[in-house]
Amino acid sequence: MTLVKFNADKKNNSSLLPSFNDVFESILNDSFFNDRLVARVPAANISETEDHYHVELAAPGLKKEDFKINLDRNVLHIAVERQNESSDVQKNYSKREYSYSSFVRSFTLPDSANAENIEASYTDGVLKIDIAKREEAKAIRRQIDIK
Q1: End-to-end Cα spacing for the chain
Q2: pLDDT tens, 17-71?
Q3: Quick one: which of 76, 81, 75, 79 has its CA closest to 119?
Q4: How far apart are CA 117 and CA 101, in angstroms?
Q5: What is the secondary structure of 48-97 as a DSSP string?
Q6: If we measure between CA atoms, which residue out of 83, 129, 85 comes closest to residue 109?
């Protein structure tokens, strides 16, 4: 019995059926499968300065119109709901796909947050939300003299 080594590496494709590898590689690299294997909840960074709280969401590939941001009682909700349609017509086949993706991130604001002063911007795939602190919550700093 002869043992035949199977190597799916494109650089050194020594398989007896090279087109067999290409078929499976194209299927597994297809956006239909990749879109379903990737987590769709963006990572968030939360930081605090003396005057503000900052929330940053890494959400590349979206438009600012895709976001819905609202505040409900002291909870900030960030939601995206997106539908895509793509079609590909080639010589031997026609492919048409639909995809739907959505996510919701919610953050409870501290009592020191000023719910009346919240600003949001979306640049280079990052959603930035700045939440001002109430005046009474801002740190008071002063020099204490030693007697």
Answers
A1: 95
A2: 555 556 556 555 555 555 554 556 889 999 999 899 999 999 998 889 999 999 9
A3: 76
A4: 30
A5: E-SSEEEEEEE-TT--GGGEEEEEETTEEEEEEEEEEEEEEE-SS-EEEE
A6: 129
